[in-house]
Amino acid sequence: MDIVIRNMREKFLDRCNIAILSEKSVNILSECLDYIETRDPRAIRILKLRYGKEPKTLKQVGCLVENRHKGKYGICAERVREIEAKCFRWLKKLYIKREIDLRHGGQWTS
């Protein structure tokens, strides 16, 4: 997951308007990704394919991801982009919530 976080860094910073991704922020981001993985493993699989060791295009990812409704592999590039965008929105919300929780000495709450 570390490779994914490193490769996602710029895109995450841009989308979430975060100035600097510190070590603490990387840990929060990692926790958020773990949380999302328990809820939507397909979204994390898409992020791993897009930002992993060998990043793939939207079309390449679409060929490798299972279509939930048809039970076959293959979704269109636009659907991959939509899932990726949804995941970034989810990450942003979780990241901000977690950062606020930590400032107030709270524990991780979902």
Written description of the protein model:
This protein is mostly helical. It is built from five helices and no strands. The protein has one domain (2-103). The protein has helices at residues 2-16, 23-39, 41-51, 58-64, 77-103. α1 packs across α3, α2 packs across α3 and α4 packs across α5 (77-103). It is elongated and about 45 Å long. The model has no long low-confidence stretch (mean pLDDT 79).
In short:
This protein has 110 residues and is an all-alpha fold.
User: Rg from C-alpha positions?
Assistant: 14 Å
Mean pLDDT over all positions: 79
The total beta strand count reads 0
The overall number of domains is 1
Largest sheet: none
Contiguous runs where pLDDT drops below 50 for at least 5 residues: none
Figure out the total of helices. 5
Write the layout of secondary structure elements.
Elements: H1 2-16, H2 23-39, H3 41-51, H4 58-64, H5 77-103
Helix pairs in contact: 1-3, 2-3, 2-5, 3-5, 4-5
Structural key phrases:
mainly alpha, single chain, 5 helices, 110 residues, 70% helix
